[in-house]
Each structure stands twice: as structure tokens, then as C-alpha cells.
Amino acid sequence: MGLLVVVANVEKIPCLNTLLVTMSHIHYSPTIEIVFVLEGELEVSFLTTSNMFISKLIKKGEIFLFPKGLVHFHKNIWRMPAAVITTFNSKNLGTQSIVSTLFVAMPTIPIDLLSKEFQIDTNEVEKIKLKLKPKN
Questions:
Q1: Which of 33, 75, 114, 126 could pair with 66 as two cysteines, CB 3.0-4.6 Å apart?
Q2: Could you tell me which residues come within 8 angstroms of residue 13 by beta carbon, excluding any fewer than 6 positions away?
Q3: What's the predicted TM-score (pTM) here?
Q4: Is 72 annotated as a binding residue?
Q5: Would the annotation count 33 as a binding residue?
Q6: What is the DSSP pairing of strand 63-67 with strand 31-39?
Q7: To which CATH superfamily is domain 3-95 assigned?
């Protein structure tokens, strides 16, 4: 998962026995986003550079790290609310909608290519493009 936790506790350092102290040092691999679930459950997914789809259900108290630069998402798939805390390795983070970007790119991506890649009819591609077209 790209995470290494080194713990200093009473088992490793016996003189900490009466101090009620534990310390940890956490090493993160270069990641773009870390999600910690406060409430509920989320489906977290990303696509590797070899086009493998990775998906997992994470619950309250669990953490998930998204590798840097990979297409990813997280969504609430249940009917109950969910809440997360996220951290990023960027001082000025932005988001990008993949579908919007592909369907309204300039110059435009050919409809037959979008149809083939999304495995939808060319008429459906046209409908999506019209729906996503920026309003002037």
C-alpha cells in the first residue's frame, strides 16, 4: 500500500514502561491522496499503469492510499452517509473529471474512438458531448 510504520513502544524500548508514551514514524511512498474513513463505508478504486482495475471497500477507521498520478475515485455505495478526511501531497490541489475532459476536449477526440473505448453507440457519444458542452 505504500506505507511503512515504525513504532517505538514499551515492547521495543522497555524504559518507556512508566511513561505511557508510544511514538511512531510513518513513511509514505509518493502518493497523491490518503483517505481516512470517519463514518460509513466507501468503495475506493484506481486504475494501474498496466490498466488493472483495483477496487476495495473501506470502512470506518480504515485508511486507503491512492498511488501518485493514477486515475482514481472513491464513492459512497450505501444509503447511509459517509465522511472522510483526505490528505494530499500538493499545496494547490485540483480535480479533473475524466469523462468531461475526454468528451469536450479541444480539438475534439473522434466520436468513433470514444464510442470504441467506452463501448457505447456513436449516438450515445453525441448525446453525452451535447450534455457536457460548456454553456457560453
A1: 33
A2: none
A3: 0.55
A4: yes
A5: yes
A6: antiparallel
A7: Jelly Rolls (2.60.120.10)
